[in-house]
Amino acid sequence: MPSDEQVGELSGEALLTAVYTEYSAAIHTYAYRLLNNQEDADDVTQEVFIRAFAHLPQLREAGRLRPWLYRIATNLCMDHLRRRSRIRKVFGVALSLGAAVDDDDEGDGPLREVAQPGGTASRDGMERVAERDHIVHALKRMPPKYAICLLLHSEQGLTYREIAEIVGVTPGAAAVRLSRARDLFGKYYEELREEERR
Description:
mainly alpha
């Protein structure tokens, strides 16, 4: 993370480049987990850094940079989710507007392993794809305010204090929300596994 001194010394493009290099991959992963769509995650990530660049001079403490970036990303993701909800209501259909799977240009990801006939690699690959699908679907069943807290803490490694700053609640409320998020995730995850067994 750029230090207070670096934020003061670097300016313009050099600072944006440093911030982008440090955080873009994590922000993109977070957006993709929430939106389950590569293009939307790309758009959100780009917009986060456009907005950050426009308002970077207003940031007084370098230590608040990470939660500030995640707050921008969270707000943008919520806007995307609200737009999807409106589209579904207008057309009267309940369908996922996100991409079902990523294109795997390299051809060496889990989907390729599943496609290979026989052997343990195929079975292990199928189990990994099923596991990933359960996680994605469990997160989709959760209200966004809980999914956001769970992803920020478990996947992105943010503290209660940083999560509180991002979602606009107290650290105590963030801890309660995260606890509820874990309970909901466990419940939905087990429901999905039970459905698969039937």
